[in-house]
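User: Predict the complex.
Assistant: Input components as received:
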Amino acid sequence: MPSAGSEAQDVPAADRRKRGPRLVNLPAVRRLPLYLGALRRFRADGCGRVSTAELALATGLSDPAVKKDISMLGVTGRARIGYEVKSLIAGIERYLGWDRPRRAVLAGVGGLGTALLCGDGFQPRGLRILAAFDDDPAVLGTRVNGIPVHGLGELSRLAGKLKPEVGVLTASPSRVQPVADLFVAAGITRIWTFAEQALSVPRGVTVQREVLSAGLAELLVRSSRNSGKNIAD
Amino acid sequence: MPSAGSEAQDVPAADRRKRGPRLVNLPAVRRLPLYLGALRRFRADGCGRVSTAELALATGLSDPAVKKDISMLGVTGRARIGYEVKSLIAGIERYLGWDRPRRAVLAGVGGLGTALLCGDGFQPRGLRILAAFDDDPAVLGTRVNGIPVHGLGELSRLAGKLKPEVGVLTASPSRVQPVADLFVAAGITRIWTFAEQALSVPRGVTVQREVLSAGLAELLVRSSRNSGKNIAD
DNA sequence: TAGATTGTTAATCGATTAACAATC
DNA sequence: TAGATTGTTAATCGATTAACAATC
């Protein structure tokens, strides 16, 4: 199992204070894709309007949470009527910048990297993958879902042409830091990494860690809280 | 791209109140795998002791956070000396229940499911995958990393023998709810799902959603907060 | 109108951070 | 001892929830 999940690489407290108070509610941002998924399904079903109560039901979230989250989008609804599905979709896509997908590359065309490339889920989620990189002769020179796989050594050369903003890092543990360094050298300023380990990157590069094992830890702890001694009441 | 990431399926507010105040710090639980990964690397390097400052550096977290998180494990260190790497590893594994891996099955042997099965990361993270399930003739009857792939129709029959506690759900969107129903019918009480959509399950079944696109949303919002108008000071 | 839904404001709750006393 | 590190307690911070006024 690759070690991925979902922790922002730590921003030390001191740095955050320098930037002043937090401007965005990140847990709310993380919920937006859930709304978006539900809304796209509503739209596919020919449903033109939704209430916050319906969205809460569809996403498994609470009604007040839905209201609060929508309020940050600047999309307005109408009392007694609800929201236009189309406006909400547009509002979320705009807020996340998913309406204008960013140029991206992926490094590490193993099992996870291949699975991500094949899913066709990047484009509707804000990323346009222009190329993949891996030195493994099994994939080097091939195409995965139409995306060419180059050697890692070609990254810096191709970066001049591709101008990627985002790097998806699905390399194996030992190559994670070297690949991160290649990303930085290629001018990439946003790294989405599926490795457990922390990355060392210069200031100005944003790292998002996807730590799958964190979800596994949470699942086991949440479930044993119930089966344990403290049954409700 | 499969739609995975990391949201606990919502526990409605009312239900949570019935259970009284929250007993565990879930964000802290989610950080434990990061410590564990760093500690295992320390151990592999022959390092017998660590301080919280070293752990903070290795994981990219803050020193007070490390102290607070360790305090919930019941592992004690020694002033001026630090903690024994071995004790911390044992403490985290015990806290998470990863020292006694749970019987599990996986349904949906597509790109993501295969990647998870091949990684050999389940066992050291609390899960023992006994079997996989998928109706796709391309994988049905084969073995992935030594794990047999059965038809979904055999799940309930095999469950009597395998007695799985945990179900990993990597099926494609349209099969997610049906597979969840099969899991529940098979007596599975903990579901780790990689689908964006909410699952409908009876009370007593714990669902952990891994929503990868949430991480993507967070990455883009966090990074544009810096490149936008509000540059620090 | 009456009633349902939006959308905001205030209250609660929980996590993180900072500070510091205890310990080796 | 002096100094560094643990480990806890208090203060701060931020997110969630609840309540309700505004609106259609």
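Chain B touches chain A through 85 residues (CB under 8 Å).
Let me know if you want any component modeled separately.
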